[in-house]
């Protein structure tokens, strides 16, 4: 079922955007600048509208192409989605600890510049997540049958992220965000690997890559595509019972190195040793 993958995308991306917005609002409230709250919400609304428009543009463009053009378009979108989500996963892994302080500093600068700067600050802080969500959602549902389930999944994910963000803002919830982003990052890597595999399949369908009918294996007797568990695997990680050799190769080449890099221990930059009291630095004699 593609609903789980879509829910995960909405939850992960939505929570990132929600955390950004909650930091901005908390800063304005504590700074007694509630008069700027409408400007923040204006930037958020503009970012949301642009993201929805971007998703609609992707769907409209794909529907107007012929078969080969549609396969190539979907392949390019899938590969871009994989690149964006991979960058996002690693960026959040490194930036989560300092995100709040950086946002407060930028908003402080924007407040000094005026209302338009506050709107722009809120817009830029949210629009990246929105565009990534639209791109990743479009790519993740290409292998699924036409159904409202993926849309319902992403809406539920976004609503869940808003509820969690509100709870955090009101201090009603206490969750370990580092653990949350680690586990959702791992799940999204699996989703991205499936999207990458499907992008390669689209390139094969369009004739840009060879080997479409050279299958790596056939487990359709054990995992039929029309079974509930076959549909679940197809909807979450784009598993197919008859993948080509090139699809499996691409899946492994993405999943293996990405997981190793993501799971390696996080190392903080070493801070310079303090200078002993009373000593002075100078050129060597």
UniProtKB/TrEMBL annotation:
The chain crosses the membrane at residues 6-28, 40-60, 72-90, 110-127, 147-168, 180-200, 245-263. It comes from the Bacteria. Keywords: Membrane, Transmembrane, Transmembrane helix. It is found in: Membrane. Pfam families: FTR1. It is a multi-pass membrane protein. Belongs to the oxidase-dependent Fe transporter (OFeT) (TC 9.A.10.1) family. This is Iron uptake transporter permease EfeU. It comes from Nonomuraea indica. The lineage of its organism: Bacteria, Bacillati, Actinomycetota, Actinomycetes, Streptosporangiales. The gene is efeU.
């Amino acid at each position: 079922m593609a609903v789980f993958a879509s829910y995960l995308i909405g939850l992960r991306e939505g929570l990132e955007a929600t955390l950004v917005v909650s930091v901005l609002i908390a800063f304005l409230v504590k700074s007694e600048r509630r008069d700027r709250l409408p400007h923040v919400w204006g930037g958020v609304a503009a970012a949301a509208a642009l993201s929805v428009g971007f998703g609609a543009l992707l769907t409209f463009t794909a529907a107007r192409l012929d078969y080969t053009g549609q396969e190539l378009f979907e392949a390019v979108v899938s590969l871009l989605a994989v690149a964006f989500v991979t960058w996002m996963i690693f960026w959040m892994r490194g930036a989560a600890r300092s995100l709040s302080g950086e946002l407060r500093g930028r908003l402080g600068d924007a407040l000094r510049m005026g209302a338009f700067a506050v709107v722009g600050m809120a817009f830029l802080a949210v629009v990246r997540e929105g565009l990534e969500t639209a791109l990743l959602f479009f790519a993740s549902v290409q292998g699924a049958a036409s159904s409202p389930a993926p849309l319902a999944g992403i809406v539920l994910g976004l609503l869940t992220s808003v509820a969690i963000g509100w709870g955090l803002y009101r201090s009603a919830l206490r969750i370990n965000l580092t653990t949350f982003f680690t586990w959702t990052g791992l799940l999204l890597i699996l989703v991205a690997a499936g999207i990458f595999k499907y992008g390669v399949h689209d390139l094969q369908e369009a004739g840009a890559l060879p080997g479409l009918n050279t299958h790596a294996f056939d487990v359709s007797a054990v995992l039929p595509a029309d079974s509930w568990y076959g549909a679940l695997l197809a909807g979450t990680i784009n598993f197919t019972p008859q993948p080509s050799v090139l699809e499996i190769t691409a899946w492994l080449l993405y999943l293996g190195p990405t997981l190793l890099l993501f799971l390696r221990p996080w190392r903080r930059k070493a801070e310079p040793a303090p200078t002993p009291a009373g000593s002075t630095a100078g050129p060597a004699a």
